[in-house]
Amino acid sequence: MPRPRKSQISLVDTLYYHCISRCVRRAFLCGEDKQTHQSYEHRRQWVEDKLLFLPQVFAIEVCAYAVMSNHTHLVLHVNEQKGLNWNTTEVLIRWHKVFKGTLLTQKYLSKINNTQDSTNDPLTESEQLTIEQTAQVYKQRLMDISWFMRVLNEGIAREANKEDNCTGRFWEGRFKCQALLDEAALISCMTYVDLNPVRAKMATTPETSDFTSIKHRIHHAIGQTKSTQHNIQNKQPRTLMLFVGNPRKDMPNGIPFELKEYIELVDITGKCIREDKAGHISQHLPNILTRLNISEDNWLTITKQFTKIFHGAVGHEHVLQSFSENQQLKRRPNLSSCKRLLG
After folding, report:
1. pLDDT in tens, 277-329
2. pLDDT tens, residue by residue, 164-179
3. Is residue 182 within 8 Å of residue 54, measured between CB atoms?
4. Taking a C-beta distance cutoff of 8 angstroms, is the pair 148, 282 a contact?
5. How far, in Å, CA of 274 to CA of 76, rounded?
6. Cβ atoms within 10 A of the Cβ of 231, count?
7. Are 190 and 204 in contact (CB under 8 A)?
8. How far apart are CA 170 and CA 251, in angstroms?
9. Which end of the chain is more exposed for a tag (fewer CB within 10 A), N or C?
10. SS3 state of residue 159
11. What does pTM read for this prediction?
């Protein structure tokens, strides 16, 4: 039986989550329907554009994504501290980018912006209190993965239903969510997501994998390299969460790996998992796996079958134990698989 989101998301244990949404109808989200020969490829751009826009609204950042023919993979990071630091005005401005809000919040922002629609009447004390309370509700929603997925999927569903000239559900009622409890779980899941088109034989290399985060990162880095900018931060797209290097003291917010190492790791792994090649992991493999103590054979197994092996939270034994205790779970999910493959 599916578990409620509150038992799958625990910001005390981790801020990283793997989310999967699947279509319910035979008609594809994207790609070409082999029976009707109708192409839905343009819908990939809908998803990618909306996905890269939402971090401008939510306190949630995108680490990795892949838009497939009938489902999407996302690795998300909840920037809780960023959201908690927002004041009332910041919260309402962000909320109004995707929702109309209430008459009071519209009145508040019109006064802030000194628009022509604003009245000269000052806000009463009760109105101000109501606005503050509303902003607190909005702030919690802007740090909520369920609301992020709702905004992302709802708009796509409406457009797809309109195009298909039908009504009803477009997505499954629930999106699947996995907590990524440590660095090993994070990097293996990101690699799994970025290599989805390669495994599905939709692409032959990461840099040609359309509508994936790895292609977005590579093409941005190439474009910046050709320019006069040399700052490593400028070589990364601001629409995705930044790679900030290996873990260290006073580390800035970001993915705790080197971007160059990650791209090399994805590229080498992609060569190994192609079905037409036996493949082997190069001895020049970036030291990410060495630091995380993951063997080469285990790495290939994880990045080919992540969602088949792991059903629920993923991480080493001690973090799984902590997650299970905080969520009051009767047993630790994926314990044997995590011990065997990540240990």
Report:
1. 556 677 677 788 888 888 888 998 999 999 999 988 999 988 988 998 888 88
2. 888 888 888 788 999 9
3. no
4. no
5. 27
6. 8
7. no
8. 41
9. N
10. helix
11. 0.89
